[in-house]
Structure formats: structure tokens, C-alpha cells
Amino acid sequence: MKQIYTSFHEVVKDVTDGSTLMVGGFGLVGIPENLILALRDSGVKHLTVISNNCGVDDWGLGLLLQNKQIDKMIGSYVGENKEFEHQVLSGELEVELVPQGTLAERIRAGGAGIPAFYTPAGVGTPIAEGIEVRTFNNKEYLLQTALKADYSLVRAAVGDTQGNLIYNKTAQNFNPIIAAAGNVTIAEVERLVEPGDLHPAQIHTPGIYVQRLIDGKQEKRIEKLTLTQLA
Amino acid sequence: MKQIYTSFHEVVKDVTDGSTLMVGGFGLVGIPENLILALRDSGVKHLTVISNNCGVDDWGLGLLLQNKQIDKMIGSYVGENKEFEHQVLSGELEVELVPQGTLAERIRAGGAGIPAFYTPAGVGTPIAEGIEVRTFNNKEYLLQTALKADYSLVRAAVGDTQGNLIYNKTAQNFNPIIAAAGNVTIAEVERLVEPGDLHPAQIHTPGIYVQRLIDGKQEKRIEKLTLTQLA
Amino acid sequence: MIKQKQFDKTLIRERIAKRAEQEIVSGSYVNLGIGMPTMVANYIQTGKEVVLQSENGLLGIGRFPYEQEVDPDLINAGKETVTAITGASYFSSAESFAMIRGGHIDLAILGGMEVSEKGDLANWMIPGKMIKGMGGAMDLVHGAKKIVVIMDHVNKQGEAKILKSCTLPLTGKNVVNRIITDRAVIDVEDKGLVLVEVAEGFSIEEIMESTEAALHVSESIQIGTY
Amino acid sequence: MIKQKQFDKTLIRERIAKRAEQEIVSGSYVNLGIGMPTMVANYIQTGKEVVLQSENGLLGIGRFPYEQEVDPDLINAGKETVTAITGASYFSSAESFAMIRGGHIDLAILGGMEVSEKGDLANWMIPGKMIKGMGGAMDLVHGAKKIVVIMDHVNKQGEAKILKSCTLPLTGKNVVNRIITDRAVIDVEDKGLVLVEVAEGFSIEEIMESTEAALHVSESIQIGTY
Fold it and tell me: PROSITE patterns annotated for this entry (chains A, B) (predicted)?
């Protein structure tokens, strides 16, 4: 039922200029490394990218920035990237900053058929400009609308050929909600298995949300290695 | 950190007349059987109950109906219960019928700090009476508000003493969202285990949502036994 | 009326269910409503890959269990004991309706009391009778990519159920894509209702007569297809 | 100014973090912001049962890993490699912020640039400087049951950071419950700011002078508590 690919080049080939992409991950954890590399190589341009962060200068979404493939970025924290700053200041890159919980909920809403919802985050702050404020039970909330994508790129630890996915530890993060919010969802998995190999109650992303699968080895760069020293 | 009870009588003792309860389950599957029995025995009255269904005449929430402990019921389908019909017609019982997906989302919103959201379910139907209609992208939606409860009663297959819960198969249903929407959440578990016995990535309800735990044997009545006959 | 008597109720339901099965495309995700729609599963042709969703939190409904397989915690939305297929997944009711509302289900086959020529559906309450509730129907009609309603063409009194406007309270407005009855297959299009198939033993005229709503006859209409 | 010089920066941060640790009640769920708040974890007294939440989807942050334990897929919200405690759970970002926004976190300890006498907090952007983003701060200030802001009492120029009104763009309006600085503990109450503790080496007058906002002095004020 699902399209199983073996070439990263092929699996992103139909992503056209001007597409809106959602990309899973928090920092460099849980990012679809190989799909991003394939997009860099494809040279697709004028992308709108929805992702919590924007990689670092030489890895993750930072690669697409370097290559000037992104026109607009929607995220919550983009501070680890000098090229990002440069392109914003020069006006090449448009940025929409969204509180992280609002970003997560807007993406979930996109996948769940909820067009809009109210949330307290951002009331009385610059991000409330131009946004409807409404009071429920004497507290103010902002109206926020759903986010959807033409393509959603996610990474899972294990996936079966029916599209069911399981994520590893905090590499889950935005991946399950992004998987549900894409018109076409492409899952890069570290290990591809047969249906029945995953326990039905342990699946984080049911297969219905995934259209394409491909397995690929992960580099898994560590942004900030912090250790407890053996005494 | 959690209060572990051994008496079902004790664990529901502080539920007072007039409380709002959410009760997990779909049909008779995943209902907190022993907590309901304890509420029947406690004789607490004038309850508002939020639950997808209302049990059958002699089991589940039907027991509280029989005992005239429920003043108001919020659910999506209440058809398996003659006493229910009788009390509605006699005006003893108030009913609010909510589309099942709207009910699930209102409960999720209650636990998630979302005061209200828009959904297409019910547009142009009797349930839209008195409800705000709003258009997003040329489609009409209804505004729906969050539901919360004084007490949430859920049932899980396994729980650890930190409150982490795992549900069995379709006994999950409304239980995880109800667990998150109660001011006090009481989990009846079939098996109580130690922290570390559950895999952190397989937990359906993180312990933060659960205040009290108690283990109890389940009867698990089957409403409609349907079999494949051996040829 | 005479022709309807030729079939007993079971045979009529079987005829409708078998025709409805043809709506299911291999590789799709389908939700079958409670009652007659559930029967459609019995007729799914071998070789078709179909994943059935159950709104109580199961993607991948299997057959009914053998006696020794019964798990009281594993039911479908009709509360019947079932099994799960290989590759199934379980989830909460919130996730289940996120899946439905979010447009991820390809097809929902639902029962109907009345359908209007605008595609309005009434299938959940009869004023004056006890109201049991709408369950998941109001979410399904807005969520699934295609909504097929299956029902008898006329009611017990022989009156049309496909109407200019529904007389019963609605489940959803302008939501039905196709109606399949024991007599005909009718599509809901922008211009109105279009008769696309007539069942064996009926004529176009008989369908017109037993339908209150105006019917366009498709240029490619097929007669006696089922 | 003289007194501040007596401490080096590390010692000041340690003093604040240790005092902030006293805010943590045993048996509670706590979110520690990035930077100085994260340091608070180092001072949690033995015997206190505390579960630390990380908004990237972890309930139960443990210590930093030994070298052989490092898992690149296991980080905290500051992107540092961590471990998970026994009884931890992992979940999605949507679930994580449902947990935060839904009021399930007992306490959040956050850094601050400015706090106003109404409890407004500014801690995410300085106009004219590169805007990195607010991350989860705007959700945390509305979600956690208690918000404690920890920061230096004055900025590098010696100017007050506790103001009548914030000059920087806000993170949240009327959200702070308590401010802990290197010099004092101040509560935000309906009547305004209330000075409840003064750190060792400072007088009430010195706190007043280095605070722009009006300060009520608590009847039960304690001097030299930390």
C-alpha cells in the first residue's frame, strides 16, 4: 500500500519550487537528515519551511539556508545559525516566529481538521498584533489557525511497510504531529520492518498518515555534548 | 508521590454531591468498573457525568442511573439503556448530546488548556442551535468549548506507582484524554507495577495526569459477543 | 412495491452491501458505519488491500474472533468483539477523530434515513422517538474524503427517502457524495442528483417515481448492474 | 555596586540558583528554563522527589550522561545531552505543551530581562538585536501553576530590571508570581510588589534604591536568608 523508496533523490523529486514543507525535529534531534540532504541536492527553491528550529550553519535545515532555497521560515527558535541572521537582515528570508506550544498546536490542528483554536500564549506581546483576542472565563486568549504542508518530512527509529512509525526518546518531538499535517508525508526510518513487527499499542504514528517510506543511516550530530564526569 | 489506595470505598470518598465526573470507556470497554461500583455504594448524588456512553441497565454507569445519582449526562450515544430513556422522559435526567469527535476534542482541550476550538461537526444540524458559526477557507465551523471535571475516573491495563498508564487495545478510547482533564484523576489499574517496569516510550498517559491509583480485578462484560465459527 | 416483496430483507441488505463494496478502492482507508455498513466488510473481494478504521481507536479491524481469541477489550464501534489485522494500531478517541476530521479516511459508508438533493443526510434522530445520540456520524460526514450512504430506496410505507429536503433533523448539510439503495446508485453533484446505475429488476421510470427529489439521468447510465 | 563586586559571576548565579531551589516542593512537577534556571537542578536537595519536565517531550529529566551513556536522541530543551530518570515518559511536542498549557506543571523557573510591578515579564527579545525566537517561554508563563523568575537584580550598567513597566517587548502580561535575584525575593501580589526576603549583605534600603518599581515591605520580611 505504501510507496517504499530506496533513493533519497527519487523520494523528494516531485517537491516543486514554492512548496510548503514541514520538517520534524527539535534542534538536530529527530531531523530527517537524508531527506534534507536530498532537498539540498535537488536545488528546489522558494520553499516555505515550518519547523521548530532551522538547523545549524552546516547541518539540518541550515544546509537549505546556505543554498538560499528557503524564502520563508515559520519556527519558534532560530538562534543557532549565523547564515539565518544574515539572510533575515538582508531581507532575503522572511521569518514568522511562533511560540513553541502554539506552533505544535497549530500543526496538530492542521492534521486534525481543526481550522482554529484559542490559546493564552502571546496575549499582550508583540506576536498578538493583528490577532483576534477573545475572553473565556475572564481570561484572554488569541485565535490561532491551523498549519498544513504540501510535504511533511519526518524521521522515525522504526517504521513498518504499512507506514506505522515509532520514534526514539526525545527524537519524537514534532515528528508525529508533522506526519499528520502533510498532504504527502515522507518518513525516513532508521530501520524498516514488516507489518506485525511493531506492537499495535506502541505505535506513535499510525500508518494512515504516511505515504512514502525510505530507510537511511543517521549521522545524529550532537549540538551540545554535556557529560557527567566519572568521579 | 502518588496516593496508592487499597480501598475503592476510600478512593472515591471525597466525591461530593453535585460533582462533575468524567468516566472513561466506550460501551463497556475500558470502564473503571470498581470505581463506578464504589460510587454507587457511596450514594453520592446530583452528579454531572461526562462519558461517551452511559452503560447498560445493570452495569457501568447504568448502575448510577438506576440509583438516581446522575442529574445530567453529557455523551454521544446513550442508546443501550432503558432506565436512561425513562428518566429523560420523566424529566429527572438532563442530557446533552455531543458528536463523538467533538466530545473527544472538548475533553482533550480541557486537559490541554485550550478554552475553545472550531469544528465542522454539527453545522446545519439541531446541535448548532445557539452555537457560534464561523467561516474559515469558505467552510463553516462551530465554536466548541473545553470540558473539565472535578474527578476523572479511568481504567488502565497497567500502571506504575508514579501514575504512568498503559491501556489494552481498544480499552484506550477516551481514557487518556479524560485522565488529563480532571482536577483529580483516579486510575483503576488491572496491574500495579514499580517505576521502571514500563518502557518510557510506550506510556499512553504520563504520570503527571494521575493523582490516585488503585488496582482491582475487572469483570469485563461483553456487550455483543460476535464470533467467527470454526469451519 | 411488488418487486420489493420478491426479496426478503436479508437479500436486499446483501445486494446493497455487495454494491457498496465496489466503492472501496484497493489501498484505501475506510470507515464503515454501524449496522448495514458493517456488513460491507463481509463482501470485500480477495486481493483488495483495505484498512478499516474504527472510531473507538483501531486502525485495521479484522474478522470476528474465534471463541478462544475473544478479548473483551477489543471491539469495533458497533461494540462487537473483533480482531485486529497484522499492522494494526490502537489509539485514543481524540486521535481517532483527529484522523477522521483531518481528512485521512478515504471513504465512509454510512446508513441513512433520508438524503436530500443537496446531499444533506439525516440518520440520527426521529422527533418524538427516544433520541439515542449521534455517536461519530456528525464527525464522519465532514471528515472522510468520500461519503457513501447506503439505505433502502423507500421506507416501510413505500415512501421516498431521497427527498427535495430532509424532513428529519440533519446529521450533516451537503455532505453526501453517493447514494446506494436496493434500486439505484445516485450521485450528488453541483447540478443536483444524477442517476448513474439502476439495479436489476427496476426501470429508470420506477426509480424516478420512487424518488421525491429531481433526478438527472447520467449520459452513461447503466441498467441492471447489481 | 561595591557589594556586587564581592561576588564573581559564578557565585552570584549559584546564590540565585540555590535560593530558587527552595521554591521546589517535594512531589512536584517542575519546568526549568534554559540557562541559569537549568542550573537549579544541580542544587535539588536529596530526599526531595521532583520530576523535571522538558518541553521537547520528556517527563523525568535525569543527570547528564556518562560518556558511554550518551544517546544523541535524548536531550533537554536546552539541547544538552541528558538521561531520563526511572519512571520517565516520552511524548510529542503537542502533548508536551498540552501538559504545560493545561496547568499540570506545578512550577516553572524562568530567566528574565525585565519584570514589571504587575508581573509582566520580558525575556525574549531586544529590539535592534537579532531576534532568535521565544521558544516555549510564552506558553510556559501561562501554563505553569507558579512562575518564578530568576535574574540579576540590576543590569550590567547597574540599572534596575524590576520596573514600573517593562521597556522591552513582553513574553507575558501579569504572569510572574515571584522574582528571585542576587539581592532579594519579591512577590507579585494584587497590591503590587512585596519584598519578602533580602539576601545577605544587602539592606532593605539598598533593595529599594536598586528597584524602579514601588516595593511594599512584607510584615514578615526576613533579612539575610541567603
Answer: COA_TRANSF_1
Average pLDDT of chain B is 96
Whether D91 shows a pLDDT value over 50: the answer reads yes
Residues 6+ apart with CB under 8 A from A67: A40, A43
Beta strand pairing call for D178-180 and D184-189 = antiparallel
Residue B183 to residue D55: CA distance in whole angstroms? 22
B102 contacts B75 by C-beta, under 8 angstroms: no
Q: How far apart are the first and last CA of chain B?
A: 54
User: Which pLDDT value is given to residue D130?
Assistant: 78
Torsion of CA A185, A190, A191, A195, to 10 degrees: -20
Integer CA distances (angstroms), D225 to A214, D97, D187, in order: 59, 35, 15
Across C6-25, b (16+ Cβ under 10 Å) vs e yields: eeeeeebbbbbbebbbebbe
Radius of gyration of chain C (CA): 18
Give the C-alpha separation, A155 to C26, whole Å.
27
Which pTM does this prediction carry?
0.97
For the stretch B107-146, pLDDT in tens is 999 999 999 999 999 999 999 999 999 999 999 999 999 9
D67 flagged as catalytic: no
- C-alpha span between B31 and B60 (Å, rounded): 7
| Banded pLDDT at D2 (limits 50, 70, 90) | very low
Length of chain A: 231
Give the pLDDT of residue D3: 52
- Alpha-carbon distance of B213 to B196, in angstroms, equals 17
Taking the C-alpha atoms of residue C80 and residue A142, their distance in angstroms, rounded to an integer, is 43
| A130 closest CA partner among A116, A115, A146, A142 | A142
Over 80: is that where the pLDDT of B231 sits?
Answer: no
Residue C154 bridge partners (DSSP): C160
For C167, the enclosing helix (H) or strand (E) is: none
3-class DSSP state of A126: helix
- What the block records as the C-alpha cell of C67 is 471463541
List the catalytic residue out of D14, D21, D49, D55: D55
pLDDT value of residue B219: 96
- For each of the domains in chain B, give its residue range(s) and CATH number, in order of start: 3-114+145-154+182-215 (3.40.1080.10)
Supply the pLDDT for residue D1: 44
3-state secondary structure of D1: coil
- Residues of chain A in contact with residue D130, where contact means CB-CB under 8 angstroms, are 79, 85, 88-89
pLDDT in tens, B29-65: 999 999 999 999 999 999 999 999 999 999 999 999 9
Which candidate from B111, B203, B207 shows the least CB-CB separation from D98? Answer: B111
Cα(B128)–Cα(B141) distance, integer angstroms: 10
Distance CA D164, CA B125 (A): 52
D–C contact (≥3 CB pairs within 8 Å)? Answer: no
**What phi, psi does B135 have (nearest 5°)?**
-100, 130
**In this prediction, what percent of chain A has a pLDDT beyond 70?**
100
Residue A223 pairs with which residues in a beta bridge?
none
Task: Report residue C42 CA to chain centroid gap.
Answer: 14
Nearest CA to B68 among B97, B50, B51, B88? B88
More confident residue, D7 or C81: C81
Shortest Cα distance from A119 to chain B (angstroms)?
6
Q: With b meaning 16 or more CB within 10 Å and e meaning fewer, what string describes C158-173?
A: eeebbbeebebbbbbb
Using an 8 Å Cβ cutoff, are A66 and A189 in contact?
Answer: no
How far apart, in whole angstroms, are the C-alpha atoms of residue D194 and residue D192?
Answer: 7
- In angstroms, the separation between the Cα of residue B17 and the nearest Cα of chain D is 25
User: Which among B101, B125, B176 has CB closest to C97?
Assistant: B101
